[in-house]
Amino acid sequence: MDALYNTHVKLLAFDFLKLTPSPTEPSSFFRRGKRLSRAETVGIVVTRDLKPGKFVKFTIDDGSGCISCVLWLNQLNSSYFSRRNPSDVRLIAQAATDFASDLQLGVLARVRGRITDYRGALQISVSDVVVERDPNMQILHWLDCMRSLVMLLARILDSDCSASCARICGVER
Amino acid sequence: MATSAVSFGALVTLEELVPSSSQFTQGASLRVTGKLQEYDIETAIASIVEGNASLKIDTQHLKVNLRIGSLYQFIGELLIDPSNQAILRARVGRNVDGMDLNLYHQSLQLLRDFQAEQMNSTTS
């Protein structure tokens, strides 16, 4: 069982953009041989395109790259949700609307969601958003991402890269 | 590799942003951090400082409350005039009062070293 498959893996943008789609499963992506489906990013909202009742597309810049994100706002009209309890769908729709209003240009946001491939471009289909008020959260995210990649490399590879990255991050292998 | 329509702001310190630096390029997308030292409300030009270095920021497109003495971070494009004076035309900006600058600088270097190591491992 892939331990990371249903986890929102913290990824730097430059790492996220290197994910490779699975040739057999549209919801799976590979990062150094590990199968992922969900990701978490922290960065500044640098673009925002709102289509009320449909979606808000935005871009997160974390200093290492830009990640395109889409937050769907069409739950009340979507056939995907038509079989669910209407009160649950209203709650989901309200949460999405609240997230959309939080996503303003220049804010530092923590975004989690499913990794998707739209016309050859990787993006995150957003499940939740938290606006981070503490400016140090961007730095913490960098450190978390580097640490988790070093741990991953230590598990799957016994390589010079793993050893040198571990030295850089001060992580014991 | 997937690409975004907007360029990310490369992390750079003001002290690194000198004419001899590779980041000192017309149109370069940068993310800079500094303390607001001056602000001209008529021209919307701000001046931020970090250590002994300073940089002018064009804030006309921003909706940020600017307060002298506070720490700000801006992402935008570098514009260089014929006399080699640079100004960052900011796309976004935010108040980062409370940011641990020592941690920021150390982590920034760590991030660069880490990314360089990743690039070396994929090309070798």
From TrEMBL, chain A:
SUPFAM superfamilies: Nucleic acid-binding proteins. Transmembrane segments: none annotated. The lineage of its organism: Eukaryota, Viridiplantae, Streptophyta, Embryophyta, Tracheophyta. The keyword Nucleus applies. It comes from Coffea arabica. Keywords: Chromosome, DNA-binding, Nucleus, Telomere. The gene is LOC113716155. This is CST complex subunit STN1. It is found in: Chromosome, Telomere; Nucleus. Residues 42-130 form the OB domain. InterPro entries: NA-bd_OB-fold, NA-bd_OB_tRNA, RFA2-like.
UniProtKB/TrEMBL annotation, chain B:
GO terms for biological process: negative regulation of telomere maintenance via telomerase. Signal peptide: none annotated. One of its GO terms (molecular function) is telomeric DNA binding. It holds the Pfam family Ten1_2. GO terms for cellular component: CST complex. This is CST complex subunit TEN1 isoform X1. It comes from Coffea arabica (Arabian coffee). The gene is LOC113738078.
